[in-house]
Amino acid sequence: MFGIKLGLEGITHLLRECGVLYPRSRVIHVAGTNGKGSTCAFAESIARAAGYRTGLFTSPHLVRFNERIRVNGQEIPDADAARLIGKVKALIEPWEVKPTFFELVLAIAMMYFAEQEVDLMVLETGMGGRLDATNAVPKDVAVLTPIGMDHTQYLGSTLYDIAGEKAAIFAWHRPALTAPQEPEAIRAIHKAAQAMDTDYRVVDEECTLPLGLRGAYQKRNAALALAALRALPHFLASDAEIERGLAEVCWPGRFEEVAPGVIMDGAHNPPAMRVLTAAWQEAYGTQKARCIYAGSADKALDEVLELLSPIVGEWVLPPVQSPRILPAAEMAQKVRAVSAAPIHTPATLAEALQQPLPPHTLICGSFFLLGEAKAYLQQCTDYRKTEQ
Fold first, then answer.
1. How far apart are the C-alpha atoms of 32 and 34, rounded to whole Å?
2. Which residues are within 8 A (CB) of 329 and not within 5 positions of it... i.e. 6 or more apart?
3. Is 237:47 a contact under the CB 8 Å cutoff?
4. Strand-strand pairing, 141-144 and 120-124
5. Phi and psi for 361 in degrees, rounded to 5?
6. Which residue of 174, 190, 273, 358 could cross-link 307, Cys pair, CB 3.0 to 4.6 Å?
7. Which tens digit of pLDDT belongs to each residue from 125-164?
């Protein structure tokens, strides 16, 4: 509700007033276009399996606000969230310029992590890097996941510009790691590393251990997360602890099987959609999907739909309660331009999610859709349990 205000002056002041500008724990800071959340989840899960007390800050949430702030894998309890929200609200009440929603949530997370005395914080960047609120927090290791064209209205119109914004999370003389990137992005990353007088390493391998997340692409995210932990000074984890952390990781909305044969994935830009379609073909071969889809109007929808269409046998375009979502009628026009598969535009999301969902259903696109769909499916599950 307070809009987007890129810059570090406001969040630095807020964190200082809250007494959490300089955390006592180690910090891993992750930026990139795709794979940030999964990489954070792998790093947190491994560290927790190794006996470290962990704090995980991510966005967006799907169903509950509490998902954004976790300690040792557990969401912040309602009572603690309410207490800290009240504390921050009282603090900023007299301020003429109010912090943004994202800044407030970060401050609440940092206060909770401090109270819980975590050993390691894993912070996911909200957008960009240089001016993102998370960049006000001193970090021990900076990590870049694959970088692509997204949020161009804020970050720049070229891959070089966007990579430069994200690589600006690099810290003076601190370790920096990156997933393999396009040459244009690597040029920007190299320049950022030189400016911070730090070396960076390209993590160009795949993890060969069993993973709790599906999709071949997760092997690279897992390898990047493990490299980030190993770059932390004095980090210790046995082979068995690493294996357990990788196998037990859970991250909703990333090729997540929410019911038998029903996949939910938050791919909403072209690079993520390429990964999703590859994961679908890896899992189901030539089987076409019944695709329940919605997308934000400010995304590259034409390209996203063109990438998605080869795996879709039937389109379901429901309404979603967000002003950012392109209306179903307009989305249908875009779909017809790239696909001959039948299109349905149900009046409600509930109609699109009528039970039981058939196998090979794919719910994808905007996280607004995923959040509403997950909440509805959970409600249906709870209702069936009550009836039984």
1. 6
2. 345
3. yes
4. unpaired
5. -95, 135
6. 273
7. 998 899 999 999 999 999 999 998 877 787 888 999 999 9
